[in-house]
Amino acid sequence: MLLFLILLPMFILIWVIIFISSIPNLQIFFTQTRIGKNKKEFVIYKFRTMKDNKVTFIGHILRKTGLDEIPQLVNIIMNQMAFVGPRPLTQYDIDRLNWNSDEFDNRWKVKPGITGLAQLCDICDSGLSMKNDLFYVENSCFGLDLKIIAKSLIIPFRGKRKQKITRK
After folding, report:
1. Which helix (H) or strand (E) holds 35?
2. By C-alpha distance, which of 113, 22, 32, 25 is closest to 66?
3. How far apart, in whole angstroms, are the C-alpha atoms of residue 88 and residue 69?
4. 25-33 contacts at long range (C-beta below 8 A, 24 or more positions apart)
5. Is-contact 87 112, C-beta < 8 A?
6. Helices 2-21 and 57-65, axial angle in degrees (round to 10)
7. Full-model pTM
8. Which of 73, 140, 163, 164 has the fewest CB neighbours in a 10 Å radius?
9. Domain extents in the chain
10. For the chain, how big is the Rg over CA atoms in Å?
């Protein structure tokens, strides 16, 4: 809640910029149903970064810096997400990746996060993402969370390739 209050001025500024740039559409937020802890559905909130199926100028900036995800603090306040955890997916993505089987059930034993080990990986590979998610679930601790958050905050400035976390 404190972080939300600290970020409130930035939240309002981004809201105004998106509001002005999205006229006449006036949709500020992107919402989507995702699968969370224990495979329960919830609605995720993000700032809208696209217009007419194209990423907007402000959308590029928001995505690169991760500021498009500030509204997910509401999901954290509502106890649907955590700061760190596996990425929340849509049911479509779970089906597409074939992550429905029992062997992947551990992934849904923790809350999804705004950031996580899989998001720090510069290679887009479903097998590697699942390995990172399962590693996090089995080894999560405050120290690992702090490391992931610190590396995630640096990504917009240095890029993913320089922010790898080595697993033991």
Report:
1. strand 29-35
2. 113
3. 12
4. 25/51, 29/71, 32/90, 33/90, 33/91
5. yes
6. 160
7. 0.83
8. 164
9. 1-80, 81-168
10. 16
Tell me which residue has tokens 């997916």.
89
- pLDDT for 30-47, tens place per residue? 999 999 999 999 999 999
**Dist CA 112 CA 123 (whole Å):** 20
The structure tokens listed for 126 are 């479903």
Please give the helix or strand (H or E) that residue 156 lies within, else none.
helix 142-158
Residue 24 structure tokens = 């006449």
E-strand stretches of 36-119: 41-47, 50-51, 54-55, 82-84, 113-115
